[in-house]
Amino acid sequence: MKNQFSKVVLVLTFFILAFDARAQKDRLISDVQGEKIVSPDEGQTARLTGIVTARLKGGFFIQTPDDKTDGNQATSEGIYVYTGSETAFQAAVGNLVSVTGTITEFRPKAEPASLPITELSMKKGTDTIKVISKNNPLPKPIVLTIADFASNKIDQLEKYEGMRIVVEALTVFAPTKGRVDNKTGISVSDGVFYGVLKGIPRPFREPGMNIYDFLFSKDKDDLKKSFPKMPIFDANPETLRIDSDEQLAAQTTEISDKEKQNKFELVLQTRAPTIEVTSFAEIKNLVGVMHYGYQKYTILPDADNKAAMSGLIKSLPLPAPNERQFSLAGMNLENFFDDADDPSIKEDIVTSETFQNRMKKISMAIREYMQMPDVIGTVEVENLAVLKKLAEKINADAALAKQPNPKYQAYLIDGNDGRGIDVGFLVKSSRVQVVDVKQFGKDEKFKNPNSKDEDTLNDRPPLMLQAAINDPKTNNPVAFTVIVNHLKSFLGIDDPKDGGARVRSKRGAQAEFLAKFVQERQKANPNEKIILLGDFNAFQFNDGIGDIIGVIKGTPAPKEQVLYASDDLVNPDLIDLVDLIKPEQRYSYSFDGNAQVLDHIIINQAMKKNLVGFGYSRLNADFPEVYRNESNRVERYSDHDPAIAYFTFDEK
User: Fold this and answer.
1) pLDDT at site 306
2) Domain total for the chain?
3) CATH of the domain at 624
4) Nearest C-alpha neighbor of 604 from the set 543, 557, 562, 645
5) Range of the domain at 243
6) Contact status, residue 191 vs residue 105, Cβ threshold 8 Å
7) Please, which contacts does 215-219 make with residues 24 or more away whose CB atoms are closer than 8 Å?
8) Each residue of 436-490: pLDDT tens digit?
């Protein structure tokens, strides 16, 4: 019996040793990365050797020395080592290390529709880092060229995942982002901006469903069958995401105890310097490690990178209307709350200094850059009292600057929004006669596809202004009707729990409600001059899920091209003015590096007779978030650019 027990122990020991041998087997990084998105060794344990090229808060990168690579350009020679905590001192940049861990394919829980990141995941207390040598030269960075983007596939840079790269010239097309504290008004940079290799055009949002949403949809096969002509947006894989301050800059100092018997290494860690940049700037010789995140291949610049930056831009004033013209604008003021408590809502109560600074920037924008439009449709304003304070500020600033006093009057009616943001008007009473201001659709309902309940349709019900401007030449008034809108955002549109079904249905129902309202007015009076403006939270084309603007205009996408189709409800069709300007100017907002239009001015055929121009005042979308902190500069009072249209008294 004793001999049998000894044999069992011997066999178990053999298997344990064999497993440990497999765990400790040296592997090449290129073999682990493989030629595909997912590692052929996923789930296996491995020991990898490489030079530490970058340190992050939760791990570090290693790359094969240049003289040890496999020579296969389709396989990456770098990999991210995930530690989950402060990076060990052994992983100093330049150290050649041997690391044990498990090969994993990581996707953030919040981003299920994403390519995975191949990682070597270390388990605390089990896996180890062994220093082989120190102060090694870093692998030579790969030069990215336009040829690397020729396939236009979302995984085209997978071959460089985890490796050092260099961009010799990058054109920025989405400025440095950040976070704003709505109470203090202080913005903090997150160091992230977007660009493309010089020579590649600016990336714009294009028609169709986002390719990530399509590829990772559980209903992908059904979508292909049911919507064979649905356009697919390729997500602009030519875009590079730059996270300028993600790398840790480590300074290692050797110290010893009083008796000098034991020596220790003290590592002081700071972040790489943040790069604050506007759109259209150029950065040369950007060197860093290629990572992946937020559906974009991401460059993490070296902590000591000496990239050269040039071409920062500033806002420029728009031309003033001439004596035969008048102008209308739409402005998203982004969470425009004051320093007084409104007990009826749960709003952010900002500091007095913050409120005054924001009013100063907005006043500057309206007076000096937008040339004081005759009617301004405002979005995301707390209440009428706040809008009145802004009107008073603009009027007072104009008088102080010896400009003609516009005598702006504020109009706003509270809606249903839980955060207390509403739409309103600033009307230049020195020139415009107000006939009527009316809210509509506040009590309108739609059927929630999840709960089957009748829910509120319009959180921010449209506000309609009927007004006239007297023609000084004929002494006859030119009458028009302006409707300011703020439709449901994209937030939650892909949420499997809340269903995007509820959000998608609500957005579609809002578009149909507005289209029917306009059609009723056109039918009652074909000569009524109608203008729709504001933040429609929709592109000027079919996004694959819905065609919000198409429905409002009367040009809905065919049923085989869109998930939530609609009938044609408007005749004659309306005109979205963004379709009339140069393609490179078709944006009012920037999201994930894509220039896109959310803010529209849409007119009917009767108003087209007076149209002379349209565009955006470039005050926000092309500028870093931290510019918000500077009250003496106009840029970044919001995250949207205002839309503005010019009209003439002389009908064409």
Assistant:
1) 87
2) 3
3) 3.60.10.10
4) 645
5) 142-203+238-310
6) no
7) 215/113, 216/112, 216/113, 216/114, 217/113
8) 999 999 999 999 999 999 999 999 999 999 999 999 999 999 999 999 999 999 9
